Amino acid sequence: MDECSVSCNHGIRSRAVKCMDRATRKEVDIRHCQDERPRNTRRCYRGRCPRWRAGRWGKCSVSCGIGERKREVRCVDKRNRAISPVYCPSKTTINTTMTCKRRECTLYNWQKGLWSQCSHTCGFGKKHRSVTCVDQSGSRVSSHLCDTDRKPRIQRRCSEFPCPFIWNTGPWSECSTTCGEGRQERTVTCQAVTPEGWILDGEVPDSCRQGERPSETRYCNYGHCSAQNHWTVKPWRECSAKCGYGRQRRLVICTNKEGKRIRRNNCYSLFKPVSRRPCYSGNCYARSCLEFKRLTKVRKDGDYKLRVGDKLRKIYCRRMRSREPKEYISLTQSPRENYAEVFGKRLRQPNTCPNDGKRPSADCEECRRRDYSEAKNATFAKIRIDLPTLTIIPSDKTFSSQSGRWRRTIPYGSAGDCYSANNCPQGRFSINLVDTGFAISNNSSWTLHGNRASQRIWRLKDGKIIRGMCGGYCGVCFPDPKSGLKVVLADD
């Protein structure tokens, strides 16, 4: 047969059909052939044609009034790869710009400057920017002419993750005198800090910057000794937090020379001692990313140690700036050890199982030319976990890399094919939880779905590794949705 009549989409393949004399093997008139004439054409498909693909619309070009939004339009092939625009239809037009309307412009508007560099390379710093009131020509005018309710913020937090080493200061001692000028002292040590923000015991010399070392002494004064009234302090109360960071309070009162309490305005406010101070009650570990967010100032996504059951486990917290951060297990092994696959080859004779069930080669003679339309595969770097129930959520694709024609993704721990109806599965999946502190529970099972579906599941290293082969004609396997893909705490 000739090649397909088109380079993409649906076309026709044709061939010559002649009436031949069997004795002489020469072509004769078609009237001499009595049987039904074979067809000389058949349909063919060369894959999806190149097409225009539009990206997302950008932001409006103006902050008020009528502006313009733009988007990128690319020519892509059947695998969504960008190619030369000459391959896409020239008559097809896709808008790259559109009109957008913002709030009505007033005579005066706020103009935002660029954010500055963060004030700290780690820890909890701030960024600043200028916000000025301008007229329609862009000239700066008095700020009272602009709407103060619409003024953009001029600072924001940044570098919201702990420094690896900090100068840790102890509480100030009581003033060395009850009146007049005295001295206070405190301890200053350089200590290591965990990614969760917890201070480790012990000193780490030469790890902190000497130029940032806090002072160890300061002057104090509760009032002149000749004064009729003085500030008097009571002992500090317990820290407000049972663990982690909290606040301490104490009572500060104004007294006369006889020690009797009097009204505050009788004491000089400049000499008033502090009544609140921060305190640290040792490390405490949260049981969820949301609780961890409430206990600390950390707002950066990352791996943190949380308390799971009676042990500490490293959990990746995602969307720490949102109201409900999500938990994931970071898979330490390569993506080739954590994958799911729907195999693409299809047998011409589906009731067979050639090569003793071994996977066919790329040039499989027993296979059809066209692969299974739903063939796909996925690799996983992290997997979502519901910590209260210790259940993996296989359908979460946030940290997966998916390939295949269909947008529908293949879940973690799933596999399938449309290869054979003779107990010969070729679709594969692999789960590898080595060095994560978790293992697949013995109560986890897999469900089969499809025509003549079959599966073979292997459990290795006490459930830290699960290998599976699944398929049918067509068939898939996936973790049982009723019981869920459960995990248990494994030895480190």
TrEMBL record:
Predominant location category: secreted
Molecular function per GO: metalloendopeptidase activity; zinc ion binding
SUPFAM superfamilies: TSP-1 type 1 repeat
Gene3D superfamilies, per the entry: Thrombospondin type-1 (TSP1) repeat
Domain of life of the organism encoding this protein: Eukaryota
Every GON domain range: 285-490
Record localization: Secreted
Protein keywords: Metal-binding, Repeat, Secreted, Signal
GO cellular component, one term: extracellular region
Pfam family of the protein (one): TSP1_ADAMTS
Protein name: GON domain-containing protein
Organism: Elysia crispata (lettuce slug)
